[in-house]
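Sequence design from tokenized structure. All designs in this work follow the same two-part layout: the structure record, then the generated sequence. An example of the structure record is given first.
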């Protein structure tokens, strides 16, 4: 289908998978590191069009994290992300980050969570965007480090905009054993969970993650397409995939956009949503992602509508909050389209 960028921009959007430390715009970098040129920004803080692998992709993230070590910097990054979300007409976003990556200048983990959560809440009020916060452990963390993250989630989940727990990082070379205790704790205490899997490793990683972590959602999960039984399992158990197509192309999970399985997964009945993963690392907006899906797979408005309804159904919100968000989404969607 052919749409103008303006038509796609006007569609209200839900984004469940976006990393705070992968979303530093040039304006924010210029604020945190005055004198940075556009060329330097592209070289140091964005991923190349085609990375060697996910480790290559993480290079730009590490430089962003280095700048995110003070309260002022964290608040600037959150505000900058909301500016980008607003331009994209995102009405609900679940933002994630690893709080233990931001302690180098003396902040305590609790400080980091409280600063980011407070900043998100203030930007929600200022923009009208609804948002929640997911705290991440990382694949390379020890069991003790990982458990500290889930305890942070437990501490703040009913007091702030914190709503869930995630595991991120490179799947390759890091066994899941160090994180089973944390996910067991989350499941025992009814803490919503998602988990990166099926990105840098294959379908076996998704099976392993589902078996031992029991998350409600999977971040990426795109290599599930290689296992018919796994796809059936995802459909039967309504396990939602947070898919980030352009990010998967950049990290070399798939060579070209046409090879991405999002269209096939949708046709097979897998619940999925469309996400950017990171707006600076991918140099991409959600509107541009929609544009690529429309031109590559001939997606029309019905596809985008269903993906966003799927996202609402699997958001880490209470049933009344989901119903309210769905009502808002449907109203705004109909007001901006002919459907």
């Amino acid at each position: 289908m052919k749409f103008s960028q303006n038509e796609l921009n006007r569609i209200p959007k839900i984004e469940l998978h976006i990393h705070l430390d992968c979303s530093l715009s040039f304006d924010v970098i210029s604020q945190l590191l005055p004198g940075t040129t556009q060329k330097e920004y592209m070289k140091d803080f964005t991923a190349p069009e085609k990375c060697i692998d996910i480790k290559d992709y993480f290079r730009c993230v590490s430089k962003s994290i280095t700048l995110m070590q003070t309260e002022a910097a964290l608040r600037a990054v959150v505000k900058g992300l909301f500016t980008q979300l607003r331009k994209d007409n995102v009405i609900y976003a679940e933002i994630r980050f690893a709080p233990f990556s931001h302690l180098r200048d003396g902040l305590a983990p609790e400080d980091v969570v409280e600063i980011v959560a407070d900043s998100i809440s203030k930007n929600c009020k200022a923009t009208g965007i609804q948002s929640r916060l997911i705290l991440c452990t990382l694949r390379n963390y020890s069991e003790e480090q990982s458990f500290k993250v889930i305890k942070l989630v437990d501490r703040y989940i009913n007091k702030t905009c914190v709503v869930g727990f995630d595991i991120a990082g490179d799947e390759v070379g890091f066994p899941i054993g160090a994180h089973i205790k944390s996910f067991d704790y989350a499941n025992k205490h009814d803490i919503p969970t998602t988990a990166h899997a099926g990105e840098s490793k294959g379908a076996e990683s998704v099976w392993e993650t589902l078996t031992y972590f029991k998350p409600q959602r999977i971040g990426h999960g795109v290599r599930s397409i290689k296992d018919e039984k796994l796809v059936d399992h995802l459909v039967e158990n309504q396990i939602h995939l947070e898919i980030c197509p352009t990010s998967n192309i950049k990290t070399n999970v798939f060579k070209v956009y046409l090879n991405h399985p999002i269209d096939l997964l949708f046709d097979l009945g897998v619940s999925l949503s469309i996400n950017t993963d990171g707006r600076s690392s991918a140099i991409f907006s959600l509107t541009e992602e929609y544009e690529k899906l429309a031109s590559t797979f001939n997606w029309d408005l019905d596809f985008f509508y269903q993906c966003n309804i799927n996202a609402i159904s699997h958001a880490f919100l209470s049933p009344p909050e989901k119903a309210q968000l769905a009502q808002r989404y449907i109203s705004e969607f109909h007001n901006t389209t002919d459907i």
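The chain has one domain: 5-329. We note this feature because it recurs in several other targets discussed in the main text.
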